[in-house]
């Protein structure tokens, strides 16, 4: 698996699971997203939970975490996903999160397009994700990226909230 890829002016760099804690400051800067999703700020060990909370039974390397860095090396985002989950060729994008100050300038789109290329190059043919019902901006964003609704899931207990999520998919040509 490629350990880095370029996404516009950001570089995606793989973060080993054992070093997930390095992403904690970014999560704390994204309090808006944690309030929206969980009804509270990021937990003190939120970043360490990212690999720990993946579904059971994955093979090593199936779950992957990327830090999104500026040319100066600042971490301004993260992307976490599972390859070949739940079926071979289907990849599941668990988290795409950019720091508030770098949103709304086309970087999210650049990351998604670059990640699609990364997935395709490794045999992925479908990308799936789940958007929170209350995350209207993200729903607009994923629709603009070409994702189609698949199925509503939930309500699921997430933090202090009971969330409904819309699963969306994009076929990679
Ligand atoms: C969702 C997210 C990844 C999108 O990334 P982004 O960089 O903000 O996305 P873009 O800049 O490509 O698009 C966002 C908006 O900025 C606008 N935009 C894009 N390029 C722009 C530019 N150069 N100048 C001004 N506005 C621009 C887009 O039109 C879009 O508007 P919309 O809200 O009407 O859709 C990011 O906002 C984020 O991390 N949000 C918080 C976490 C989250 O919700 N993650 C998704 C969970 S499913």
Automatic annotation (TrEMBL):
InterPro entries: Acyl_CoA_acyltransferase (IPR016181), GNAT_dom (IPR000182). Signal peptide: none annotated. Residues 10-173 form the N-acetyltransferase domain. The keyword Transferase applies. Keywords: Transferase. The keyword Transferase applies. One of its GO terms (molecular function) is acyltransferase activity, transferring groups other than amino-acyl groups. It comes from the Bacteria. This is GNAT family N-acetyltransferase.
